[in-house]
Design brief:
By secondary structure, the chain is α/β, with parallel strands linked by helices. The chain has a single domain (16-138, 145-163), classed as P-loop containing nucleotide triphosphate hydrolases (Rossmann fold, 3-Layer(aba) Sandwich). Helix content is 36%, strand content 16%. The chain has helices at residues 19-32, 50-57, 82-102, 113-118, 124-133, 149-154; strands spanning 9-13, 37-41, 61-65, 107-111, 139-143, 157-160. α2 links the parallel β2 (37-41) and β3 (61-65). The protein is globular and about 50 Å long.
């Protein structure tokens, strides 16, 4: 007799590095157990990252990049108007909602969804409604800084990543394979 899966809502939040990395690790673990995974990245844009390459190569894993790039002013590419960020987020959010509600996947990861909420690109109440309406067997993984309190309250597992020490503090720039 096969046990019925209890789909979890998992939140990785906080100001430290490692939220996406944790979600990638979970997606790899799920794929290793022959689960169907869809990994959606909000906000990060089209720059190349190691996790995208490996996730796309895994059987049973699909990945979509829906954002146009970072929206934080000091990281934002000034050549991309905020209207383009909004349009990309609106389309990505509709796509993510269909994935979560569709029942085709065992796990859906909404990477950097919370910064999309913070930037006003995705409505916090709509995100909370999606979490509460997810299929019972679906594992829903949400990442990013500043998780809304109502989402934290609904989640089954919440991990806060807190920075204690970071190489940036020593003047060491982002490195391929570590930061991206």
């Amino acid at each position: 007799m096969t046990a019925v899966r209890h789909g979890l809502t998992i939140v990785y939040t906080g100001t430290g590095k490692g939220k996406t990395t944790a979600a990638v690790g979970l997606a790899v673990r799920a794929a290793g157990n022959r689960m169907r995974v869809f990994f959606v990245q909000f906000v990060k844009g089209q720059w190349k990252s190691g996790e995208r390459s490996v996730l796309r190569s895994l059987p049973g894993v699909e990945l979509a990049v829906t954002g146009r790039g970072f929206t934080i002013e000091r990281l934002r590419d000034p050549r991309i108007p905020m209207a383009e960020h909004q349009d990309a987020a609106t389309a990505g959010w509709a796509f993510a909602q269909a994935l979560v509600r569709g029942g085709e996947y065992d796990m859906v990861v909404l990477d950097e969804i919370f910064p999309a909420v913070t930037a006003g690109l995705v409505d916090a109440a709509e995100l909370a409604a999606l979490v509460s309406a997810k299929p019972a067997a679906l594992h829903l993984v949400l990442t990013g800084r500043a998780a809304p309190p109502e989402v934290i309250a609904m989640a089954d597992l919440v991990s806060e990543v807190v920075p204690i020490k970071h190489p940036f503090q020593q003047g060491i720039k982002a490195q391929r394979g570590i930061e991206f």
